[in-house]
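Ticket closed. Logging final result for LysR family transcriptional regulator.
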Amino acid sequence: MTVQQLKYIVTVAETGSITEAAKQLFISQPSLSNAVKEIEKEIGIAIFLRSHAGITLTKEGMEFLGYARQVIQQMELLEDRYVAYKIGIIYDTPLSDMMIDRKVVNDNTDLCDWKFSDILYC
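Final structure:
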């Protein structure tokens, strides 16, 4: 199971529709449907109940969704924390000269005069 697959499950749950989720994820509906079925098969539970009215979470699916959101959030925290280090190895330019979301560096610190290489030594 991958983080991308977890994002698929979360999007389907939030939209209540595989078709709508596929549009938001920019993938085909059959591909998304197959990915969801693969995850369900891999973990051995039905995450969704499918009907003509749409798709809803099972009790087990609600629990799974909570864990999936936690994993995605933790992955985003890791990316936020370490992407500045990765970029710092490549570039040696003032942050103020780069088009970068300040959140990547640290919303609570003024680093505009720092260089990425300086971040490596924090």
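The radius of gyration is 19 Å. No further action required.
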